[in-house]
Specification:
- This protein is of the alpha/beta class and 238 residues long.
- It has a single domain, classed as Alpha/Beta hydrolase fold, catalytic domain (Rossmann fold, 3-Layer(aba) Sandwich), CATH 3.40.50.
- 32% of the residues lie in helices and 14% in strands.
- The protein is built from six helices and eight strands.
- It has a six-stranded parallel sheet with strand order 2-1-3-4-7-8, with helices on both faces.
- Helix 3 links the parallel strand 3 and strand 4.
- Helix 1 crosses helix 6 and helix 3 packs across helix 4.
- The chain is globular, with a radius of gyration of 23 Å.
- The N and C termini lie far apart (52 Å).
Protein backbone atom coordinates (compact mmCIF):
# COMPACT_ATOMS: atom_id res chain seq x y z
CA UNK A 1 0.00 0.00 0.00
CA UNK A 2 1.44 3.38 -1.01
CA UNK A 3 0.38 6.58 0.75
CA UNK A 4 0.64 9.47 -1.73
CA UNK A 5 1.46 12.94 -0.36
CA UNK A 6 1.19 15.73 -2.90
CA UNK A 7 3.12 18.96 -3.47
CA UNK A 8 2.32 22.29 -1.86
CA UNK A 9 -0.29 24.31 -3.80
CA UNK A 10 -1.47 21.13 -5.52
CA UNK A 11 -3.80 18.21 -4.76
CA UNK A 12 -4.03 14.44 -4.96
CA UNK A 13 -4.68 14.37 -8.71
CA UNK A 14 -0.99 15.00 -9.45
CA UNK A 15 -0.40 11.28 -8.75
CA UNK A 16 -2.69 10.12 -11.55
CA UNK A 17 0.21 8.93 -13.80
CA UNK A 18 1.31 6.52 -11.07
CA UNK A 19 -2.15 5.26 -10.12
CA UNK A 20 -2.65 3.30 -13.32
CA UNK A 21 0.71 1.60 -12.95
CA UNK A 22 0.00 0.76 -9.31
CA UNK A 23 -3.18 -1.04 -10.34
CA UNK A 24 -1.25 -3.00 -12.97
CA UNK A 25 1.39 -4.02 -10.44
CA UNK A 26 -1.20 -4.98 -7.85
CA UNK A 27 -0.34 -2.25 -5.35
CA UNK A 28 -2.96 -0.44 -3.33
CA UNK A 29 -2.72 3.30 -2.84
CA UNK A 30 -4.22 6.01 -0.69
CA UNK A 31 -4.13 9.54 -2.08
CA UNK A 32 -5.53 12.44 -0.09
CA UNK A 33 -5.57 16.24 -0.05
CA UNK A 34 -3.43 17.90 2.59
CA UNK A 35 -5.17 20.49 4.75
CA UNK A 36 -5.98 23.66 2.84
CA UNK A 37 -5.55 21.91 -0.51
CA UNK A 38 -7.99 20.44 -3.01
CA UNK A 39 -11.17 19.35 -1.28
CA UNK A 40 -9.65 19.52 2.20
CA UNK A 41 -10.73 23.04 3.09
CA UNK A 42 -13.15 22.56 6.00
CA UNK A 43 -11.64 22.80 9.49
CA UNK A 44 -12.88 20.83 12.53
CA UNK A 45 -14.87 23.85 13.72
CA UNK A 46 -16.72 24.11 10.40
CA UNK A 47 -14.89 27.14 8.99
CA UNK A 48 -12.97 27.03 5.72
CA UNK A 49 -9.28 27.51 5.12
CA UNK A 50 -6.73 27.56 2.33
CA UNK A 51 -2.97 27.16 1.98
CA UNK A 52 -2.89 30.79 0.86
CA UNK A 53 -3.51 31.78 4.49
CA UNK A 54 -0.77 29.54 5.93
CA UNK A 55 2.49 30.92 7.26
CA UNK A 56 5.54 29.58 5.43
CA UNK A 57 7.77 29.94 8.50
CA UNK A 58 7.78 28.45 11.96
CA UNK A 59 8.44 24.95 13.25
CA UNK A 60 4.76 24.63 14.19
CA UNK A 61 3.19 26.25 11.14
CA UNK A 62 0.39 24.54 9.21
CA UNK A 63 2.86 22.94 6.82
CA UNK A 64 4.59 21.16 9.69
CA UNK A 65 1.17 20.25 11.12
CA UNK A 66 0.46 18.45 7.83
CA UNK A 67 2.54 15.68 9.36
CA UNK A 68 -0.65 14.88 11.29
CA UNK A 69 -2.49 14.51 7.99
CA UNK A 70 0.02 11.85 6.91
CA UNK A 71 -0.30 10.15 10.30
CA UNK A 72 -4.10 10.19 9.92
CA UNK A 73 -3.68 8.33 6.63
CA UNK A 74 -1.49 5.72 8.33
CA UNK A 75 -4.01 5.39 11.17
CA UNK A 76 -6.84 4.95 8.64
CA UNK A 77 -4.94 2.12 6.95
CA UNK A 78 -4.25 0.44 10.28
CA UNK A 79 -8.01 0.25 10.93
CA UNK A 80 -8.27 -1.70 7.66
CA UNK A 81 -5.57 -4.19 8.72
CA UNK A 82 -2.85 -2.60 6.59
CA UNK A 83 0.26 -2.64 8.78
CA UNK A 84 3.24 -0.33 8.54
CA UNK A 85 5.42 -3.16 7.24
CA UNK A 86 3.16 -3.28 4.18
CA UNK A 87 3.13 0.49 3.71
CA UNK A 88 5.29 2.86 1.70
CA UNK A 89 4.98 6.65 1.76
CA UNK A 90 5.57 8.57 -1.48
CA UNK A 91 5.75 12.35 -1.44
CA UNK A 92 6.50 15.15 -3.88
CA UNK A 93 8.39 18.35 -2.88
CA UNK A 94 6.68 19.36 0.41
CA UNK A 95 5.13 15.89 0.37
CA UNK A 96 8.61 14.34 0.08
CA UNK A 97 9.81 16.20 3.16
CA UNK A 98 6.66 15.18 5.04
CA UNK A 99 7.11 11.56 3.93
CA UNK A 100 10.66 11.42 5.28
CA UNK A 101 9.64 13.11 8.51
CA UNK A 102 6.64 10.81 9.04
CA UNK A 103 8.72 7.70 8.39
CA UNK A 104 11.40 8.88 10.83
CA UNK A 105 8.73 9.06 13.53
CA UNK A 106 7.09 5.80 12.46
CA UNK A 107 9.83 3.17 12.04
CA UNK A 108 7.21 0.57 11.18
CA UNK A 109 6.78 2.16 7.72
CA UNK A 110 8.58 -0.05 5.22
CA UNK A 111 10.02 2.51 2.80
CA UNK A 112 9.84 6.06 1.40
CA UNK A 113 9.80 7.44 -2.14
CA UNK A 114 10.84 11.10 -2.12
CA UNK A 115 10.26 13.06 -5.34
CA UNK A 116 12.18 16.37 -5.35
CA UNK A 117 13.05 16.35 -1.64
CA UNK A 118 14.68 19.55 -0.38
CA UNK A 119 16.53 20.71 2.69
CA UNK A 120 13.68 23.04 3.61
CA UNK A 121 10.17 23.49 2.24
CA UNK A 122 8.19 26.06 4.21
CA UNK A 123 10.23 25.16 7.32
CA UNK A 124 9.55 21.44 6.94
CA UNK A 125 13.13 20.18 7.24
CA UNK A 126 14.69 16.89 6.14
CA UNK A 127 18.29 16.56 7.40
CA UNK A 128 17.59 15.44 10.97
CA UNK A 129 14.64 13.22 9.94
CA UNK A 130 16.94 11.53 7.39
CA UNK A 131 19.51 10.88 10.11
CA UNK A 132 16.76 9.32 12.24
CA UNK A 133 15.24 7.35 9.36
CA UNK A 134 17.35 4.28 9.96
CA UNK A 135 18.38 1.43 7.73
CA UNK A 136 15.30 1.17 5.54
CA UNK A 137 14.89 1.46 1.76
CA UNK A 138 14.72 5.01 0.41
CA UNK A 139 14.24 6.12 -3.19
CA UNK A 140 14.87 9.73 -4.19
CA UNK A 141 13.94 11.19 -7.57
CA UNK A 142 15.11 14.57 -8.85
CA UNK A 143 15.71 16.63 -11.96
CA UNK A 144 19.11 17.80 -13.14
CA UNK A 145 17.99 21.06 -14.73
CA UNK A 146 17.32 23.03 -11.51
CA UNK A 147 20.77 23.78 -10.07
CA UNK A 148 19.71 24.52 -6.48
CA UNK A 149 17.35 21.56 -6.20
CA UNK A 150 19.88 19.23 -7.82
CA UNK A 151 22.63 20.25 -5.38
CA UNK A 152 20.28 19.69 -2.46
CA UNK A 153 19.34 16.29 -3.88
CA UNK A 154 23.02 15.33 -4.03
CA UNK A 155 23.55 16.48 -0.45
CA UNK A 156 20.52 14.56 0.80
CA UNK A 157 21.73 11.51 -1.08
CA UNK A 158 25.10 11.70 0.70
CA UNK A 159 23.41 12.10 4.10
CA UNK A 160 21.04 9.22 3.38
CA UNK A 161 23.84 6.88 2.30
CA UNK A 162 25.66 7.52 5.57
CA UNK A 163 22.56 7.28 7.76
CA UNK A 164 20.64 4.49 6.01
CA UNK A 165 23.42 2.45 4.43
CA UNK A 166 24.45 2.62 0.79
CA UNK A 167 22.60 -0.59 -0.01
CA UNK A 168 19.31 0.97 1.08
CA UNK A 169 19.47 4.20 -0.94
CA UNK A 170 18.54 4.51 -4.61
CA UNK A 171 18.44 7.71 -6.64
CA UNK A 172 16.84 8.39 -10.03
CA UNK A 173 17.90 11.57 -11.83
CA UNK A 174 15.74 12.76 -14.70
CA UNK A 175 16.97 15.25 -17.30
CA UNK A 176 14.50 17.89 -16.19
CA UNK A 177 11.55 18.50 -13.94
CA UNK A 178 10.72 19.23 -10.34
CA UNK A 179 7.93 18.04 -8.04
CA UNK A 180 4.80 17.00 -9.97
CA UNK A 181 6.66 17.26 -13.30
CA UNK A 182 8.71 14.24 -12.22
CA UNK A 183 5.63 12.11 -11.49
CA UNK A 184 5.20 10.60 -14.95
CA UNK A 185 4.04 7.38 -16.57
CA UNK A 186 7.61 6.90 -17.81
CA UNK A 187 9.27 6.65 -14.40
CA UNK A 188 6.25 5.06 -12.72
CA UNK A 189 7.25 1.60 -13.91
CA UNK A 190 10.77 2.03 -12.55
CA UNK A 191 9.32 3.06 -9.21
CA UNK A 192 7.00 0.05 -9.11
CA UNK A 193 9.94 -2.26 -9.84
CA UNK A 194 11.91 -0.60 -7.03
CA UNK A 195 9.07 -1.14 -4.55
CA UNK A 196 9.20 -4.85 -5.37
CA UNK A 197 13.02 -4.99 -5.05
CA UNK A 198 14.15 -1.93 -3.09
CA UNK A 199 17.62 -3.02 -2.01
CA UNK A 200 20.61 -2.71 -4.29
CA UNK A 201 22.38 -6.01 -5.05
CA UNK A 202 25.57 -6.69 -3.19
CA UNK A 203 28.71 -5.69 -5.08
CA UNK A 204 30.86 -8.70 -5.96
CA UNK A 205 34.53 -8.05 -6.56
CA UNK A 206 35.92 -9.57 -9.76
CA UNK A 207 38.97 -11.68 -9.09
CA UNK A 208 41.33 -13.54 -11.43
CA UNK A 209 43.03 -15.42 -8.60
CA UNK A 210 42.91 -19.25 -8.72
CA UNK A 211 39.90 -20.67 -6.90
CA UNK A 212 40.49 -21.80 -3.35
CA UNK A 213 41.11 -25.51 -3.04
CA UNK A 214 43.02 -25.97 -6.30
CA UNK A 215 46.01 -28.22 -5.91
CA UNK A 216 49.24 -26.27 -5.68
CA UNK A 217 50.65 -28.14 -8.64
CA UNK A 218 47.75 -27.02 -10.83
CA UNK A 219 47.76 -23.35 -9.82
CA UNK A 220 49.08 -21.26 -12.66
CA UNK A 221 49.36 -24.29 -14.97
CA UNK A 222 49.02 -23.43 -18.64
CA UNK A 223 46.10 -24.84 -20.57
CA UNK A 224 46.08 -26.11 -24.13
CA UNK A 225 45.68 -22.74 -25.84
CA UNK A 226 48.53 -21.17 -23.91
CA UNK A 227 46.41 -18.93 -21.68
CA UNK A 228 47.30 -19.13 -18.01
CA UNK A 229 44.49 -20.47 -15.84
CA UNK A 230 42.58 -17.74 -14.11
CA UNK A 231 43.76 -14.99 -16.49
CA UNK A 232 41.41 -12.91 -18.62
CA UNK A 233 41.65 -13.22 -22.44
CA UNK A 234 43.25 -10.33 -24.32
CA UNK A 235 40.79 -8.66 -26.69
CA UNK A 236 43.00 -5.65 -27.37
CA UNK A 237 43.73 -6.73 -30.94
CA UNK A 238 40.13 -7.55 -31.88
Amino acid sequence: MVVLVHTQKSDLTEWQPWMTQMKRYGFGYLAFDLRGHGNSFVTPDGSTTSWRAFSVSGSDNEYNKMLRDVEAALAFLSTHSVTGQRTAIAGSALGANLAIKAAAIHPEVAMVIAVSPALNVNDVLTVNPLRAYGRRPLLMIGGADKAKQYKELQLLNDIARMACGKENVTIIVEAKGIGPDLVTKYNARRVMDWIKNPKRPEVVELSTAPAAGLAGDNAGQENTDGAEQGSMPDYSQE
